[in-house]
Fold this sequence. Notes:
This protein is of the alpha+beta class. It is built from four helices and ten strands; from the N terminus they run E-E-E-H-E-H-E-E-E-E-H-E-H-E.
Amino acid sequence: MRASAPAYRGEGPHALWHVSEDPAIARFVPHRARTALTDELLVWAVDTRHLPLFWYPRDCPRCTFWAGPRTTDADAERFLAAQRDRAVHVIEDRWLERVRVTRLYAYRLPMHTFIQSAEVAGYWTSRATVEPLEVVAVDDLVGQHVAAGIALRSESNLWALWDAVVQSTLEFSGIRLRNAHARPAEAPP
C-alpha cells in the first residue's frame, strides 16, 4: 500500500469525505467510476489526511508527492527541499485561475459501511447508498493549501515532473492526468 500523505496544518479529526463542485448531493449511490479498476458498484470516499488531494476542480490534472519510509535522502532533497514532512501538489498553469475561483463542497459521510482500500492509503469504499452527515463549502483553494502548509506549484506541462516523480522513491498520486496537456514532442536528433 502507498504510504499515507503527511499530516497537514489544521487537518482535523479522522472522517470520510466526498468532494464535489455540486452543492446539492442528497445521497451517494454505488456506481462504477469511469477511472475505477473494478466493475464493482461503489461509493468512493477519502479520509481527512488525504482530503487536500481533492482541493481542485474535478477535472484538474495534478501531480502530488511526498516522502515515505523508502524515500532516499537524495530524492527528498531534489523534490522536497529535504523537508520530509512536506507534501507538494503541482497543477498546470492553465488551471491556476480556475483553482483560485472554484468553490467545492466536502460531504462528510458516515463511516460504518466503508472499508479502507488495500492498495491506496486514504481511499475508502462502500457498497451501500449513503447520505451525507454534513456538507462544508470550501473556498479559496489556493489559500487552503497555504494554510495547510502544502506547497502548491504550477508548471506549463506536468509530464517531465511526473515521469521523474514516478521514477523516484517518493510516494505519489496522479489524478486526472488524462486531462493534462500532451507530452511535449521530443526534439529530433
